[in-house]
Amino acid sequence: MIDKNSEHGLGHLLNPTDPESDDRDWIRHLWTFIVATVIGADRVEPDWLDRPALGRITISSPTMLQPLATWNETRPYAQQIKPYNFLLVAHAAPLGHPPGADPEKFTLIAPYSADATLWAGLMWRNLHDPHGPTYRITTEDWDHTLGGQPADLVVVTSYRDVLHRYMRHPEAKSAGPEGNPCRHDTTGLLGRRQVHLTSGNLHHIGKEANKIDDVQAGTVTALDDVVNDYGTPLDILAALVWPCIATLSNVDIAARFDVAERTVARWRRKDATPRDRHVQALIMLAVDVALDHLNRAAIDHPWCDLPLAAARRDWRTVLAFHLDRHEPEQPRCPCGCGAPLRPRQNYATDACRKRIVRRSAPPTPGATAAPRPQTQLTPASRPHGAQVGTAAPIDSLDMSRTRAADPSRCLVGW
């Protein structure tokens, strides 16, 4: 006795005995047949296994109604197929398409009929070829010893084909008893399958619920038509992170992350993919800069009274809020001269670059370094989370104010 039978992968098909009925007892009969086959018990084959396995869809767009324009031209309005009427959908079997047809653009539809015995005799049309010919369907494989398959004949899947494929379909999300990915012949107690994610192939997508009824009915053959792909982490960096830290030069970021300046330049141009730790560090840096910009501009935001950790956890919203409310600042030369930088420009002049090089050179033996200035923050200029009267990390300070105080020490601590 079957306690609960799964309808996954079968729910889009019509009841082969009574298409008008919502009774799904026919799926229980299939599961009884499957279990009896596995354990070697006596089994009774349903008499409807050789009928075409059809689905039903609703005409919800002009694209779905267009292939039936010829049908409607020869009939009075009362007999025409109208929007939101039902259609039957047939699924071509592997190698069952007519000669020259594109399997990715071939879905058969026909006017709805509740009589399952008439399905094989209906005139079918290709949903993706509105002005194409009509087709006949059959569930029997074509005998090629008799010659080529007729151009108007399509071999479609039957409930028997669905049953055989269902029995041999591997459970991709589970692992077998030995811990290996499931195969078509795996049996036994299944467990969770371990998945290892590689950041280079990571894509952010939306829920696959667009046209879910059409996908389940089989009228959508390419998932790219319904899946929203929001891109890779590089796209997220370009959309949210880099605009927030546009005021920081490649030199500043390179010194902070201990990487080469040209590496940061390649990150900005999307010529290279940052490592995971660098991606996280760039995001956290962008959050700190975004909050500092919002505080200095006296813009009220939801993270005013929250700890910095809470803002970092909600980094997408923080960065999007910053880009929406904060007017972007033009990046300035890192040498402290205050000159604006053009796109892909690291220094205002060659003299500025040399000035940075001289500051980065090791000190001369016997020379003493000037004492590091201590910057006191006022309530209007303190970064997020800092207290009045305490020295905050220089990487969270307003760099333009620090350079104005002492341009010769603008890179100290980075």
From TrEMBL:
Residues 1-21, 357-414 are annotated as: Disordered. Residues 366-375 have a biased composition (Low complexity). Residues 1-10 have a biased composition (Basic and acidic residues). This is Uncharacterized protein. It comes from the Bacteria.
